[in-house]
Amino acid sequence: MVQSLDRSQGRAGSISSGSANTHGTFTGNRALQIEEPLIFEMGQAGRCGVDLPEPPPKSSGVKDRLNGLRRKGAIGLPGLSEPQVVQHYTRLSQKNYAIDMGVYPLGSCTMKHNPRINEKVARLPGIGDLHPLQPVSTVQGALELIDSLAHWLKTLTGMPAVAMSPAAGAHGEMCGMMAIAAALEAKGERAQRRTVLAPESAHGTNPATAAALGFVVKPIPANDRGRVDLAALKAALGPDVAAIMLTNPNTCGLFESEIVEISKAVHEAGAYFYCDGANFNAIVGRVRPGDLGVDCMHINLHKTFSTPHGGGGPGAGPVVLSAALAPYAPYPWIVKNGDKWQIAEDGAKVDGMPLGRLKAFHGQMGMFTRALAYIMSHGADGLRQVAEDAVLNANYVMAALKDVMSPAFEGPCMHEALFDDSFLKDTGVSTLDFAKAMIDEGYHPMTMYFPLVVHGAMLIEPTESVAKEDLDQFIGALRSLTAKARTGTAADDFKAAPLYAPRRRLDETLAARKPVLRWKPSNNPPGTDPLKQAAE
Amino acid sequence: MAETKYTEEHEWIRVEGDVGTIGITQYAQEQLGDVVFVDVPAAGRTVAKGEACAVVESVKAASDIYAPVGGEVVESNAALADSPGDVNAEPTGKGWFFKLKLADKGELAGLMDEAAYEAFVKSLG
Amino acid sequence: MRYLPLTDADRREMLSVIGAKSVDELFRDVPASARLAAKVGGLPDHQGELEVERAFQGFAAKNLSPAAAPFFIGAGAYRHHVPATVDYMIQRGEFLTSYTPYQPEITQGTLQYLFEFQTQVTLLTGMEVANASMYDGSTGTTEAVLMANRVTRRHKALISGGLHPQYRSIIETTAKWEGFTANFAKTDAEGLEDLIASVDRDTSCVVVQNPSFFGHVRDFTKLAQACHAAGALLIVVVTEVVSLGLLMPPGEMGADIVVCEGQSIGNGLGFGGPYVGLFATRDKYMRQMPGRLVGETVDADGQRGFVLTLSTREQHIRREKATSNICTNAGLCALAFTVHLTLLGEAGFARLAELNHAKASQLADKLAAVPGVTVLNDSFFNEFTVKLPKPAAEVVEALAAKRILGGLPVSRLIPNDPSVANLLLLAATETATEAGMDPLVAALKEVL
After folding, report:
1. Tell me, what DSSP letter sits at residue A57?
2. Is the pLDDT of residue C97 over 50?
3. Structural domain for A22, as ranges
4. Distance from CA of residue A375 to its chain's centroid?
5. Residue C166 reports pLDDT greater than 90
6. How far apart are CA A106 and CA A128, in angstroms?
7. pLDDT for C316
8. What is the CA radius of gyration of chain B?
9. Which helix (H) or strand (E) holds C10?
10. C370 and C309, same structural domain?
11. A100, part of any domain
12. What is residue C279's predicted lDDT score, i.e. its pLDDT?
């Protein structure tokens, strides 16, 4: 039976409903946890949160040039005053977990500290307010800034070129794989090399990207050490293979120890090596991917270089390129001509064969600024320490939990520790239940059920930002949960978790079976339509 | 007399005359969990044996359904649009996906009967 | 280093728990040939906040801030006033430093604002369903073409000559490497293009922009009907979302997919990004949409809550069969959009649009009076094209030398086309003032 949606949560204590609620308070609130309706349930005609000047009156002689296409009906936007808007979004913010609140060990996402100096410099007049199509003579500093970041990225990775414009990691993958397609085309091999190899443990974006470009994705198996099976890879390589897409360190948190042999075999077969750089944080300053034979690698600036994750974006995914792929980098190219910076845009002559354009303008400048501020703050010495501390923290978690949880592979790990769910066998507690119980302990859960190659996977990435005493408390909490699970009688408690979060477990089946993806006036229970109330 | 055959992809086909009704097995629906959406082929479409022609989705997974035999789709289960849960409740009854007019009844020979399918499921552990 | 909490004593203690003698031991899986013995050479060491800030002030000093000059550039990125509340709100750590709401119990804040965002987008565009945002309008437009190819199972897109030239470039690039046909109508500076006769039974979609890149405001109702008669979809792109406060929404014209660049609301110019793409369509195409979707549901106590939903379309589940390879949206930019639009509300948004139109009308009238300048547009919202007696690129450089940011020479985005060499695209938003327009007019009279 499909449950009916109870939409009366908006204003539990308003005079019109006033009934008891889950928390037993008149308001439905629980101290600092305030129940908050949707803006559409709060608005009143006649309220506005901005003061704008009167438009010139019709009589002023300024004529309407809208070609008769003036909007007829109302849009339906609610009216709220500024204090109401501030309270609304402040209350919503308090229903979120965040890096600023504590350990956020979401594996493969690198939830490190986001310094506020990054935010400050990104908003400086003359940086944050520049128009992307100002005359190039008026944005020389902006171009120099982008080139400074490009220089750091190329030097840290040991690669000769970088394409800055991709908007996110997945977009960077698209850019890198297009560059490979372009290089193959230039060699006359694009029609023949249709296969892309990717390990079964790959991020879902890898096969999605390759398939979008018309490649056939062929999985390559892992060995029992959680690494690519070199013999199987060699057997799969042939004149039909365009590229291998490999994450390194891989999604199991392990360094591909045979990476040099892998890249050698790939190149000998005439294919290219795409490296997914999602896990660059583990090796920045200690290993240059260029030394491993990588042909291209995207760098998620929001992971390794601390630009804010922002509730899921915006990201930025510059792609470093080997000499073989550099000529195919997309527009725009930033080039220096004497002492003047210039932008080579679509159609401009450059020293290469650009694959085209991937994004309007010049890339995620706001993210470049933040990433560069982070990089300059750390310097070459600090970045090396970042990788070392990130790897140390992960290994410490693995060592402190290996007797009560079950590491999927033998260590040392890199920047994240992967466990399977065998330690929960016969307890009635699943990976999901275990994760939800962590919420009640005040933690964001680790990445669950990824990578797919490990049963009930739990991927813990503490990052370098967590102090030892905080890590010790985190470890203590996980040890306590494993002890509770092992009693064999706590499954119901785990299944009920979380108890203390702003919401209990949410019904995802209902959400998917009867998708409600927007508020509609009829969503409101009778008598609570704010538009009607305003009219009355 | 209707005969029911099974595939290794956990589809069943029940054949009456030259029309086969196709759905997924009890085992398959248990593995999927709560089904939230089913995409069925339109009547009139011709499908080849082994062709991906329907999709069944749970909250966290999506699986292709392959035609167990070739033929022309003569009817699809429109009711699943509003009640995908039928696939969980009655996978071999109300939860059927589509009906095919068989192109070649000989293709049925390669499929498993009920006993063979049960043994196959057991072998999966 | 101020961001690194571990002390040397911590590190020693942790190594002993791990049972390793040194951190180097933890990197033993790295092939010896690739291990760097010391920090990467040729790069500076760490710096304090003061030094970092000073370096960025140095970059900034080499640029001309639009705040310091009369400013009239648009072309897909618009200078508007963003209320202080917006920037405060997106810097709250609970929003700024949270991630994709994978754990809905502790990310209701993000999920609810995205649900509000989705609703706002449907209202503005006149569509039925919207996603939780795309990277930006330019990439969203290409995603819309790919979606139309999926929906129609056709592979030939028809692209208007009034679409932003860089958006056209991205479609061209995607078509080349992903393998579909894109036919590009010729540049339409006059706003007279009629694509109806070019729609046929193989057409998957027609992509138009309103107002067009050159500023013209068009009614696409008949084009929508022609598309539907041929089984194709109409994609309407809006690069200036403020126009929707005054103009008939694309949904009313019969659009099947609407993509907007949402930067104008809540997001600064930022030298081109990050911005936020709005993406809306009809309910019947919901499952073919790219990107994340937030849906309403209930929790175990029956309380209303929100979750990411219909995620089986996405790459982490469908992998090579996903609707798109996208995994992030533009969450924080979407929040900025939503907070700003909520502050504006119905009355404020409509008035903002009126103001923009009035300022642009005022500017057009002033420029039309300059000898040698012809305004090409009969219709526009806050942006229009003028024809100059000489190459616009030279004129813009001459204006810049006088510290006036006087529009975009069309030739910058459409090079090697003599027919656009003398065209200048100008925008005026609510931030434009008469005190800025008059120097532009005076300077133009000098340089022309």
Report:
1. P
2. yes
3. 7-45+80-95+511-536
4. 19
5. yes
6. 30
7. 67
8. 13
9. helix C8-18
10. no
11. no
12. 98
Mean pLDDT by 10 residues, chain B (125 residues): 86 93 92 89 91 87 88 94 92 94 90 92 84
Q: In chain B, positions 52-111, which contact chain C (CB-CB < 8 Å)?
A: 57-62, 64
Q: Can the peptide bond before residue A498 be classed as cis, meaning omega within 30 degrees of 0?
A: yes
Are residues C261 and C163 part of one domain? yes
- Give the mean model confidence (pLDDT) for residues A87-101: 97
How long, in residues, is chain A? Answer: 536
Task: Calculate mean pLDDT across residues C431-443.
Answer: 96
pLDDT tens-digit series, residues C285-337: 998 999 999 999 999 999 999 999 988 777 666 666 777 777 668 999 999 99
Contact B84 A508 (CB under 8 A): no
| Contact yes or no for C357/C117 (Cβ under 8 A) | no
Return the CATH number of the domain spanning residue range B3-123.
Answer: 2.40.50.100
In a domain, A111, yes or no: no
C143/C286 same-domain check: yes
| Residues C253 and C355 occupy one common structural domain | no
> What pLDDT, in 10s, does the model give residues A427-483?
999 999 999 999 999 999 999 988 888 999 999 999 999 999 999 999 999 999 999
Structure confidence by residue, pLDDT tens digits, A188-232? 999 999 999 998 888 888 888 999 999 999 999 999 999 999 999
Q: What is the CATH number of the domain that holds C362?
A: 3.90.1150.10
Same domain, C227 and C309: yes
Buried residues in C26-57 as b, exposed as e (16+ CB within 10 A): bbebbbeebebeebbeebeebbeeeebbebbe
Whether A323 has a pLDDT exceeding 60, the answer reads yes
Is A5 a residue whose pLDDT tops 90? no
- The answer to whether B28 and C285 are in contact (CB under 8 A) is no
The answer to the question of residue A114 being in a domain is no
Separation between Cα atoms, residue A361 and residue C110, nearest integer Å: 28
Interface A-C: count of C-beta contacts within 8 A: 720
Look at C318 and C219; give whichever has higher pLDDT: C219
For residue C31, being part of any structural domain is answered with no
Please answer yes or no on whether B62 and C318 come within 8 Å at the CB atom. Answer: yes
Give the per-residue pLDDT at A524: 52
Tell me which of B59 and C280 has the higher pLDDT. Answer: C280
Of residues C216, C247, C315, nearest to A208 (C-beta): C315
User: What residues of chain C lie within 8 A of the CB of A7, using their CB?
Assistant: 304
Burial class of residue A206, CB neighbours in 10 A (0-12, 13-18, 19+) = buried
Shared domain for A24 and A138, answered yes or no, is: no
Contacts of C244 in chain A (CB under 8 A): 71, 75
Residue A361's CATH number: 3.40.640.10
Contacts of B95 in chain A (CB under 8 A): none
Q: How far apart are CA A108 and CA A451, in angstroms?
A: 10
> Using a CB-CB distance cutoff of 8 angstroms, which residues of chain B are in contact with residue C287?
37, 39
Q: What does the pLDDT average to over C331-350?
A: 97
Parent domain of C354 = 66-82+346-447
Are residues C97 and C72 both part of a single domain? no
Q: A71, C412: Cβ pair inside 8 Å?
A: no
* Nearby residues of C379 by Cβ (< 8 Å), 6 or more positions away: A65, A66, A67, A69, C191, C211, C215, C216, C217, C218
* Structural domains of chain A, count: 3
Chain A, 282 to 321: residues with Cβ < 8 Å from chain C are: 283, 285-288, 291-292, 308-316
Are A362 and A459 found together in one domain? no
Domain identity same for C73 and C122:
no
On whether any CB of chain B is under 8 Å from the CB of A58, the answer is: no
Residues of C in contact with A386 (CB under 8 A): 4
- Provide the H-helix boundaries in A250-337: 259-268
Same domain, A328 and A388: no
For residue C52, tell me if it sits in a domain: no
Domain end position, chosen among C276, C311, C340: C340
In a domain, C442, yes or no: yes
The confidence score (pLDDT) of residue C161 equals: 98
Q: Are residues C321 and C416 both part of a single domain? A: no
